[in-house]
Amino acid sequence: MNFLDIQSGAQDRSNTWRNIIAIGILVVTLGGIGWSFASSFSSGKVSTFLARVTPEVFPTAEDKDVVKAGGDITVEPVNLPVPPKLIGELVPASTFAAEGLIVKDVKTGSLLYEKHAYDQRPIASITKLMSALVILEKSPDWATSTVVISDDVPDTHMYAGDTYTLGELWRAALVGSSNKAILTLADAVGWPRDAFIERMNQKARELGMLDSVFTDPSGLDAGNISTPSDLVLLLNEALSHEEIHQALLITEVQLYSKERNKQHHMWSTDWLLLGWIQHGFANIIGGKTGYIPESGYNFTARVADIRGHQLDIVVLGAPTHEERFTVLRDAGEWAFQNYMWLDSSSTVSEGL
């Protein structure tokens, strides 16, 4: 007998037993399923299942609860603000006597006019807006008193050794642009001066001011540089804080030095706010000046017309003290007169 035939027969018998075992397992499994189905049918579960899948109760588009759970989703349209439309003509850059200028619509962020808006320049005391933001992060107690620093910096409002509350120093820094006041505040919040300046630069990066560098809290150092485009971001952030916004609306401050037994008065440096520069704006919402010889005359402000349209404007490097205000005024009035706004009521309006 051939050995291969014997091996083949043994393999056939083995396969037969495997088939018998498999059939047995299948019979047992089907029996279990049938018993489970019968139990479910008698308890009403199957009828409930069948009722759920009949066409009469299929989810429909009108069934919003079902739609939200899955299937088609209805999305409400997003109403984005419509940017102002230019209806006049752009004027040449030489129209405005400043090295840098930008005009932006506050509501939409639309750029309405620019002149060297991305060129870096020293910003002088506009720096104090960034210092104010960093000071607020430390939640100062405005009623606490401190002594004015002895740094040898130009200042006509403060004298070293005088004692004032942090609130008085805050107003002196933002209304009268006192250098010693802002430096005293920076030292009073508990950070070393270098750490305070580093936080100013970190804050700039957080706000997207990537072309800005800060080297001291007062703005006296010409190393404090930025661009009109960046300073719009700074102004917008500063005005979103009520402590800064309200301070920038104060027209005058009266201080009293106990050490010298002397009163001191300071006007706001914002001549538009004081009305010393004639303008057609309905409202001056807040502004900050800056000057050192390296920067020329700087000014940034938010202004509004009678219909509530608001503009953020930055002027850098104006040739004279008065021209920083007249350039900002002229640029703002030009924008209000040459752009058309589509208001929420779907009515068309022009500024001023």
UniProtKB/TrEMBL annotation:
GO annotation, biological process: cell wall organization; peptidoglycan biosynthetic process; proteolysis; regulation of cell shape
Residues annotated as signal peptide: none
Keywords noted in UniProt: Cell shape, Cell wall biogenesis/degradation, Hydrolase, Membrane, Peptidoglycan synthesis, Signal, Transmembrane, Transmembrane helix
GO molecular function: serine-type D-Ala-D-Ala carboxypeptidase activity
Originating species: Candidatus Magasanikbacteria bacterium CG_4_10_14_0_2_um_filter_41_31
Domain Peptidase S11 D-alanyl-D-alanine carboxypeptidase A N-terminal span(s) in chain numbering: 94-320
Family per record: Belongs to the peptidase S11 family.
Keyword Oxidoreductase: no
Annotated binding of substrate, by residue: 288
Annotated Pfam families: Peptidase_S11
Transmembrane segments: 20-38
Designated name of the protein: Peptidase S11 D-alanyl-D-alanine carboxypeptidase A N-terminal domain-containing protein
Catalytic-site annotation from UniProt: 125, 128 (proton acceptor), 177
Coiled-coil parts of chain: none
